[in-house]
Amino acid sequence: MVEPFDTVKGVKRVISGYTGGHVANPTYQEVCSGTTGHTEAVEITYDPNEISYEELLNYYWQVTDPTDAMGQFQDRGDNYRPVIFYNSDEQKLAAEKSKQELEESGKFDQPIVTKIEPAAPFYPAEEYHQDFYKKDPLRYAMEEAGGRAQFIKKHWQK
Questions:
Q1: Number of folded domains in the chain?
Q2: What pLDDT, on the 0 to 100 scale, is given for residue 4?
Q3: Where is the Peptide methionine sulphoxide reductase MsrA domain (predicted)?
Q4: For residue 23, is it left (φ>0), alpha (ψ between -120 and 50) or beta?
Q5: Is residue 149 assigned to a domain?
Q6: Phi and psi based region of residue 71 (left: phi greater than 0; alpha: psi -120 to 50; beta: remaining)
Q7: What is the greatest pairwise CA distance in the chain?
């Protein structure tokens, strides 16, 4: 999720990390074990004068599979579940509204399963996870292409 948001005008910083669990400062290995309760997430810092929270939400729906409760594209497991974490009542209402609009749009033939949850402590991932798409572009491209192809086949080739 870093690369899609990293290229959006108004987004100032995107940090990979973990949130929503019960262990302080988890490692990647601990999160992947499924024992910490964390979700892999990104923390997005943006300039509201350049892009609104609602615009970020609309973009989120375009770059995720909101119908897959057990992962995103090639990343599988509960720690990859789709979640929008909010920091205020206004963000919660905006997220719920955008989800409802997506559900009512009929764009997907399966239920929207993305959760909307209050933000919990966020722990940045290890340095080797930050900007992975820049550090290993070939591997990133191959993984993304495979995951996106599965998404297209699942939703658009009927």
A1: 1
A2: 77
A3: 3-141
A4: beta
A5: no
A6: left
A7: 45
